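pasting input
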Amino acid sequence: MGNTVSVERKQYVVFLLGKENYGVEIHSVTTIEKMLPYARVPKTPDYIKGVINLRGEIVPIMDIRTRFGMEVIDETEETRVIIIKINDISLGIIVDEVDEVLELKEEAIENVANFTNDLSMDYILGVGKIDGRIVTLLNIEKLADISNDNIALGE
Amino acid sequence: MDMSQYLEIFIDETKEHLQSLNESLLELEQNPQNVATLNEIFRVAHTIKGMAGTMGFNKMAKLTHEMESVLHALRNNEVKITPNLVDILFMCLDALENYTESIVNTGGEGSNDYNSIVLELSNAMNKKVEKPEMDKETENTQITSEEVEINSYKTAQFKLNQYEQNVAYKAKEMGMNVLKITVVLNKGCVLKSARSFIIFQTLERHSDIIRSEPRVEDIEDEKFDFEFTVVCITKEEPLFFQNDINSIAEVDEVIITSLGYEDFQLSEIEITDIPSTTASTEPVKAEDEASGDTKVEKNNHNNHAQKSKTGKTVRVDIDRLDVLMNLVSELIIIKTRLEGIDTGDRTQSYNEAVEYLERITTNLHDAVMKVRMVPVEMVFNRFPRMIRDVARDLKKEIVLNMFGEETELDRTVIDEIGDPLIHLLRNSADHGIESIEKRIEAGKPSAGQINLRAYQDGNNVVIEVEDDGQGINLEKVKNKAIEKGIVKRDIANTLTQKDIVNFLFKPSFSTQEQITDLSGRGVGLDVVKTKIEQLGGVVEIETEWGKGSKFIIRLPLTLAIIQALLVVIGEEKYAIPLNSTKEIIKITPDQIMMVQKQEVIMIRDSVIPIVRLDKILEIPKDDKTAKQLTVVIVKKGERLSGFLVDSLIGQQEIVIKSLGKLLSGIKYMAGATILGDGNVALILDVNSLAI
């Protein structure tokens, strides 16, 4: 007994962008797919790659590298689309490689307020540390909010 | 016990029962002697009572219980059916509908007790006992009215009967105000009854009227001088009503007195007092009203047969059908892929299997589509009652004939089509059908006819609202358009009849000089048009002055599947809805001319602006100019534009899918569809792309 901290454990899907580890909370992940053919959607921000047919449902996919201002690379055998669903919004994010599912205790997560000066700061919830690895945990809600960039939306 | 899982079933079933109650009441109004109808009404009231009771909606149960008592008395011939009683039953129906609405929205039945209705119901019941004393009562009122001549407000001189006193007393106990309000109208007031009606409505918004002197019916028939008095129960203060009523035109004076406990004596002596006839009518007068001015007919005799057929159904959430639909689309896609596999060693049995699969998927697709179809009856069935009420309000005779209620439309369309139709029907009743006098003058039968017709026409469903009223005065419409600056006078004279009629669809355009409660505010037809267009349909008007008008709505069978033209631009595929394309032509680059910085082409003497889709949609493309260009001519309303595309794939039936919440409302795109090979193609929104 006495291990009340276990309530605060959360699971994260860890993926790679270049050499860095990123994580999204597992509850918001619907499925993980191999890269699918997509249709470009005009008048959307450049990081919206297009829409895919996910078993009959049309889902937009986001190039997270472009969004974070990272170098754009060609897709490989390892490229995956993580389909997430948050606030009724379905969205696929394209990642270099999906690694594993990690369980993190809350005390293993460090607030990002200690970090500074990064363009992608807004999208980061915190940084998790486990076994000497560092996993950047993403704020999916922010990621799924494209209203600031979406020049062609609305009237 | 948790009832929430039954709530939806309760709501659905109640709605169904209320609808059947509605129909039966209309039927009863026409044939008061029909015992079968009466039994049906009784049965429905009883069922609703039972269901409401089980679910714990006590107010609903109470109201239906009171209804039941009256209906029971009716069945046993203890009480006679009067138009007034039917009205009360209709009020019950409205109250029950309000309860249901409240349950749908909030999960609870709300706080409204509809005491006045319960009161009227019990009055109707009391009548059977009090019948012999009727004469005595009329005598009484005569005496009192003579007595009070001295007083300036003669209508204010009456005593509440025992029942009313009880109600008032209880209301007082509950902390409500009981107000006696005397209203004196301006002597120059022409439409006294209409004015009074407005006052009554104002009062009823915040109070329950328990007594009116003279009686409401007499006020409606203008059988009163320039004043009347009501007693009402309310939460509001006297001053509130003072201001409210004073703001109504042609009101000279408002006298409000608050009644206290001393005004209601609950003594034994008063019990001998005769219940008033607030709600009841003398039989003679009742006969008059029955043959009176409102008459609504429903030309649907096989309705009952249909009802019994709908008994064997299963309620399915539309979302589940969407899932099913998605799966079927997927099946079709995978089938297409199987057909495409060419391994070289395809045996005959493999081919046969694929062919068989194709047949099954096609049938499955049709079957799922059919499940989504519901008869327009679902929308139509509320109209007879509405027309009845409207006719009564307008003091016109209107017969509503409905045809083709069995015509089926997609569920999503059905849900949206109700409001526009209500608008058109009201429009016909209000502006179309003339008053009885005018009709007789014009040599028409006194009863106006409104025909509501639905039928399938190819891939469309057509709904027509036709009246034999006065038609549209095109001159008037034209002048109004000039006056409003919509069109210049010199141009106006060259316009065709169709052009002029179309002005009616312009925002805030109304030719009705007098604003009525029903329509004439000018916020009408443009809304109808917008709504219909949202549904992918069109509206047209045919009219002949003096003969009547016809509104024709043309709707696609379903919103989910449309015919589309697939085109290629650069490397990308797009779908253009076929109903907005007019034709496809090939031109050479030198046929494109510049007019005021806009590229145009000339086709059969008309100038059509050119839209370069690749530029607008930022489609990556090499710049080499082709010898021949393909132009898809599209319609945006009446105007044409030419979309420049690289090549055509062909016409195809496509399933429209939303782009998802993230990209919802994106410009230029109306959605997406999945092609046979599983790839996604975007559907172009012609309205925003066309010039």
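fyi The first helix of chain B runs from residue 4 to 30.
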